[in-house]
Design brief:
The complex is a heterodimer of chains A (about 425) and B (about 140).
Chain A: H1 5-11, H2 17-32, E1 38-40, E2 44-46, H3 50-65, H4 69-72, E3 78-80, H5 97-112, H6 123-126, E4 137-138, H7 141-149, H8 160-169, E5 171-173, E6 187-191, H9 198-212, E7 219-222, H10 234-248, H11 265-268, E8 278-280, H12 282-290, E9 301-309, H13 311-321, E10 331-336, H14 338-346, H15 349-355, E11 359-362, H16 371-378, E12 382-385, H17 388-394, E13 400-403, H18 406-415
Parallel strand pairs in A: 2-3, 2-4, 6-7, 6-8, 9-10, 9-12, 10-11, 12-13
Antiparallel strand pairs in A: 1-5
Chain B: E1 3-6, E2 15-21, H1 28-31, E3 32-33, E4 38-39, E5 55-60, H2 67-76, E6 83-88, H3 91-100, E7 103-105, H4 113-116, E8 122-126, E9 131-134
Parallel strand pairs in B: 2-5, 5-6, 6-7
Antiparallel strand pairs in B: 1-9, 2-8, 3-4, 8-9
The chains are: A alpha/beta (about 425), B alpha/beta (about 140).
Chain lengths: ~425, ~140
């Protein structure tokens, strides 16, 4: 791998052991993916909830945090994905003081490194939206796919250690979606039924993701620019992308007429022949929902999360729940970013949701929050959500998930059963 | 003569161990009970099986950025696979292997390793030179 003089100095340890570890890590990963060099990045975004960090990860971070200040501070804006728990609401969810203690240690270590604790997976809506052509080191698959596809920026899926390495060096290895060669469409899907709501957009992401099924596939989804309703909005693309990344490990999609690198179908495939399309119609959506259906079942927990809710989604939940009461046997949880929570508090949305018996948690995203332990402590099994990403993930934590619209989720939360 | 499979140069140390193979994918966050060391997602083809000290041979890595931290934590607690062999990995698992110093290889010349290697095979993984040797078969 070609290194600049500055990078050689980092490798030699001239800027301390943290940056030396970081560039060594980047060179190992870069060599694995045949990266020719490192590329400067505009931001790094670290997925580092304490459930996945564990004691080993937190102790390692504390080691970095103990270094002299000039050796430990990140060089580019570095922000965080949702945390393992919300220190303001964890007791209501029966998370433990031990979880809160390790969380506090991780936060202290990150702050010592100069990391901004944004605790959000919707930073592309709320913090510093990526711009076209900007190289980034983003954690959280939903953040990467949105930044790449909707905003035309350039990032691979960067795990926590790699994103932190990028913060420390200000660079990342140039491979995968940093390169033009990987950004052309590889599969073609044609949608014959416009998704009706956020759950449908997630379902569409799941349907495409199951077929594409590889980090290295770039689905091109056509037919979404010609409906009377107009193009999808940011929340719709957020749910679509998050589910596509979750089900398919996909990091980039194009929607001709909608996303910036695909003004036409031809552009989406970079001028190459357009492959025959996989057609997606009403029966595909029906089959997707049927895989999770459980009509009439008692519902233990209703979750709006994955990704965190925008202010607009918070308003939608509040509007649907006004004047109603969540069933005594059901818990309703809404997760959002700390910034949106402040806004929702200020605008009275939090109070409206909590007046109905819901819990609004900030800086968390449910599945990253000790989901298995929460299920055991609260006796939860049946989970209802409008997030296709969440139904894909959460079965691995011992839940039985069902996908439904936001309206049906709230009607079910009130009834205590899936309606 | 043992069977020698060539692959792309990988990550981590040379290791020897017993293969656990499935034509399925892998995510530490979605698929595993990391406290018990077993596959916990019911739809996974290795559901219920222990991965501890096995050489996992799977098709691809699936979504979930968390796996990058989790491999190191799993290794630190002694509840980790000995190596992971993929047909093609994604970036997260490669980064996680680099961070955990866990052996990982992918991109085989002879095609998908889940069709070339069987559960129970004794394997030697040599990431530095890009070789996987099936020691128990000719």
């Amino acid at each position: 791998m070609r290194l600049t003089e500055d990078e050689k100095a980092l490798l030699a340890g001239e800027a301390g052991p943290a940056r030396q570890w970081a560039i060594r890590h980047q060179m190992a990963v870069g060599a694995f993916f045949d990266a020719p060099d490192l590329v400067p990045v505009g931001q790094a975004h670290i997925m580092a909830d304490t459930e996945s960090l564990g004691e080993a990860g937190v102790a390692w971070l504390e080691g970095l945090a103990a270094l002299p200040e000039r050796e430990r501070r990140v060089r580019v804006p570095t922000i965080t994905d949702p945390r393992g728990l919300d220190l303001a609401s964890y007791k209501r969810l029966r998370q433990t003081d031990a979880m809160a203690a390790i969380e506090a240690r991780a936060i202290a270590a990150f702050e010592a490194l100069g990391v901004l604790m944004t605790n959000t997976c919707i930073n592309y809506q709320t913090v510093l939206p990526p711009v076209r052509g900007e190289h980034l080191a983003m954690g959280d698959t939903g953040v990467v796919i949105y930044s790449n596809s909707v905003q035309g920026a350039r990032s691979n899926f960067e795990g926590g250690p790699s994103a932190l390495a990028a913060g420390l060096t200000g660079r990342t290895p140039r491979y995968g979606y940093h390169l033009d060669a990987h950004r052309a469409g590889t599969r073609h899907f044609e949608v014959r039924q416009r998704p009706r709501d956020l759950a449908d957009w997630g379902a569409l992401g799941g349907i495409v993701g199951k077929v594409a099924n590889s980090y290295w596939e770039v689905p091109v989804v056509s037919g979404l620019d010609s409906w009377a309703e107009g193009p999808p909005n940011s929340d719709e693309l957020k749910h679509f992308g998050a589910a596509l990344a979750s089900f398919g490990s996909v990091a980039l999609f194009h929607m001709p007429g909608v996303t910036p690198e695909a003004p036409t179908l031809g552009h989406a495939f970079a001028g190459q022949a357009v492959p025959q399309a996989v057609s997606i119609g009403p029966s595909d959506f029906e089959a997707f929902y049927a895989g999770y259906a459980a009509a009439g079942d008692k519902v233990d927990v209703v979750v709006f999360a994955a990704p965190q809710l925008s202010l607009i989604e918070m308003q939608q939940v509040a509007g649907l729940i006004d004047g109603r009461r969540i069933h005594g046997g059901t818990t309703l949880i809404v997760t959002t970013s700390p910034e949106i929570k402040f806004a929702a508090d200020r605008m009275g949305l939090t109070a409206r949701i909590e007046a109905a018996g819901g819990i609004v948690a900030a800086g968390v995203c449910f599945y990253q929050s000790y989901a298995r332990e929460m299920a055991e402590a609260n006796g939860w099994q049946r989970l209802l959500t409008n997030s296709a990403k969440l139904v894909n993930i959460i079965a691995g934590y011992g839940y039985k998930p069902t996908l439904a619209s936001m309206e049906a989720c709230i009607d079910s939360a009130v009834a205590g059963r899936i309606v | 003569m043992p069977i020698v499979l060539k692959c792309h140069k990988g990550l981590g140390p040379t290791v020897t161990g017993i293969a656990l193979v499935a034509q399925d994918n892998f995510s530490a966050r979605y698929d595993l009970d990391r406290l018990k060391g077993t596959f916990s997602r019911p739809a996974h083809k290795l559901y219920g099986q222990s991965y501890v000290d096995r050489i996992l041979v799977l098709q691809t890595a699936k979504g979930g950025v968390a796996s990058a931290w989790m491999l190191r934590e799993m290794t630190a607690r002694g509840l980790a696979p000995k190596a992971i062999v993929f047909d093609r990995t994604n970036t997260i698992l490669a980064q996680g292997a680099a961070f955990a110093e866990l052996a990982m290889v992918d991109r085989f010349e002879a095609g998908d390793p889940t069709t070339l290697i069987r559960t129970g095979d004794e394997l030697r993984i040599e990431p530095a030179v890009g070789l996987v040797t099936i020691l128990n078969r000719d």
